[in-house]
Amino acid sequence: MAVKHGYEPPSALAMGVAVAKVHGLAVAETARWQGLAAVLLKRARQVHDQLGYLLMYGSYETERNPATFYTGWRYTVLDAGQGVSLQRIGIPFGVHADPHECVFTSWRSPPRRCAHRGGPAASFPWSQSC
Question: pTM for this structure?
């Protein structure tokens, strides 16, 4: 998507490491209500934090409605069909949802490291606090 917006492939790739998506979180019917989904989401969050992603998000179909689960883990659950802009981290597009989907998000504060000290690429707004 970034390339479609005029970014060169290296910049588009660098933007891709700022946002992580939970593509699926599923537990077998016979194993539900044992805390497995919580363990999986917690591990995904650990990887998210270790890799320095600024946004972790996912979506689910409204008929399933696990909003209480995600809000319990401090995610923001958006209304059905509502997307989220990535402008706050300098990415000129966003995450969109179909009318029958809800997006859940968790933002992390931008790092305060300078690019020349091992921080993010200097071309991104969150690295300008040097």
Answer: 0.72
